Amino acid sequence: MLFLYYLAFISLVSAVVFCLDKYKAKHAKWRIPESSLHMLEGLGGVFVILILMYNIRHKNAKSSYYIKTYLILFAWVVGLGYWGWKHLS
Q1: What's the confidence (pLDDT) of residue 62?
Q2: Are 15 and 9 within 8 A, CB to CB?
Q3: Distance linking the first and last C-alpha atoms of the chain
Q4: Are 72 and 38 in contact (CB under 8 A)?
Q5: Helix runs in 1-89, H state only
Q6: With contact defined as beta carbons under 8 Å apart, do 43 and 63 qualify?
Q7: Closest CA to 32 of 15, 11, 55
Q8: Can you say whether the dihedral through the CA atoms of 9, 47, 51, 49 is positive or negative?
Q9: For residue 69, what pLDDT is reported?
Q10: CA distance 30 to 8
Q11: pLDDT tens-place values along the chain, 89 residues long
Q12: Alpha carbons 87 and 25: distance in angstroms, whole number
């Protein structure tokens, strides 16, 4: 249960930061580094960021960002699958 609270929290933080970067991009302001966005993805925000990439049309056309995001998603899916296999079987 604690893990779900963690994922909800990191997803909320990731969504706010990602939307803030979109706002800054539209208004030609200082941007949030991609490495920070990828760090949030790696911490568990990848699920919400992936949804936002297409809903707010931010970073979805940049192939280098897109590829890294999907690699992080793949790592999360494999990790969760492994955890589920070990603990739920």
Answers
A1: 83
A2: no
A3: 19
A4: yes
A5: 2-26, 34-40, 46-55, 63-88
A6: no
A7: 15
A8: positive
A9: 95
A10: 27
A11: 899 999 999 999 999 999 999 999 999 999 999 999 999 999 999 999 999 999 998 887 888 998 999 999 999 999 999 999 998 87
A12: 43
From CA 81, how far away is CA 85, in angstroms rounded? 6
Q: How far apart are CA 24 and CA 57, in angstroms?
A: 14
DSSP state of 57: T
Q: Which two tokens stand for residue 25?
A: 């991009």
Specify the amino acid at residue 53: M
Instruction: Return the amino acid letter for 80.
Output: L
Residue 58: alpha-carbon gap to chain centroid: 12
3-state secondary structure of 30: coil
